[in-house]
Every structure is written in structure tokens, then in C-alpha cells.
Write the C-alpha cells for this entry.
Amino acid sequence: MSKPVRIAVLASGRGSNFEAIIRSISTQSLNAEIVALVSDRAEARALEIARAEGIPALLIPSNKNDEIFETLKPYAPRFLVMAGFMRIVGPKLLHHFRSDKGYTRITNIHPSLLPAFPGLNSYSQAFNYGCKVAGVTVHLADSGVDSGPICAQESFSIEGMTSSSEVEKKGLELEHRLYPKTLNWVLKEEFKVEMNEGRLCVRSS
Ligand code: GRF
């Protein structure tokens, strides 16, 4: 097996996607090494998970976004993996993790079929709109909100569901499968990128 890809995970809260990534690494379905966990919130459960796993748990408060870059330097991550990180990554990080092919080595998971419902409460929005399907997207970050090139998407039917928490429960199960599975090829950077009408586009090969 090739050398594990060094990743730093960024999480603001519960950390269930972080846990799913840890599990996938320990069962060897994801070839990565988590070099640090960064959170902007002291009460984030993700920090506790990291400490319990012996992963460096770094608290960097929200108003000091640029500090992420300096703090992570000694850990030398190749990729940043956002998992419920409620901040936009700053220009310094975008620049530092930019590959010479034009994409950034920063991933995110979002609980909707982007470009529908960027931002907050996406499962609730799908439910409130009366959508018949909801879904999950894994994408690379850019300077916008949930707007970077899409790597993977999966949908699920929400017809007949009676609450947004039901949508969220089903969605989270999907997230925990889709994120590690997608990271497995994205971290290897075995994909092609195209520029289509000014928009960078990832094609898995
Ligand atoms: C997930 O729904 C993720 O898609 C979104 O924020 C939530 C984080 O959940 N970006 P967790 O912290 O991974 O449990």
C-alpha cells in the first residue's frame, strides 16, 4: 500500500463524520493519517473524540481563522478535510492548499444535492420545500459557501418522511459512507479537472 495521505480534519461540533473517517482508516478502507483535528469551538465533541484517539486536538477560535494555517504548519497535512466545520476557509489556506492543476486540496461534505440548499439547515430546507429527494455532496473548497467542484453526490428518497430529523438521520448514515469512500480516491488525486464555462469541474477517472 502507498504511504497514507496526511490529513487535518476541521470540525465545529458533533464530529460524527470525523468518527466515520477514523473508522475507515482503522479498517483500512481509507489510506490516510489524521495528523490533527482543528476546531473553532471549545465545546465541540470532535475535540473529545480526537483526544480519546490520541490525535492532536487543536482549538482555534473562530475570529482567528488565519491562525489555522500557522498552527497546522508543523503537522504538514497534504489535505484539509472539513467535516461539519462552520467557517469559510480564508484566502491563505486556499492558496497554500492549491494544487498546480487549479483545485484546492481541501474537501467538504454538505448535506444537500448542491447547488441546491447551500449554507445552513439543508436537510430541513429539503423537507420544508416538500422535496421528494434529498442528498449529500462531497466537494472541494473554493472561496464561496459550499460552491467548489463536486466530487461525489448521492440522493435518497424522502417521500413519506414526516419530519426533518427523519431526513437528517437517513442523510447522516449516507454521509458516513460517502465521505470516506470519496476521500479514498480524492486524496490520491486520481481525477481529472476541466474548466467548463469558467467553472472548475472534477471528473473521477
Ligand atoms: C453534517 O450534516 C455535515 O454534512 C454538515 O454538518 C454536519 C456535521 O455533522 N457539514 P458531524 O459534526 O460530522 O456529526
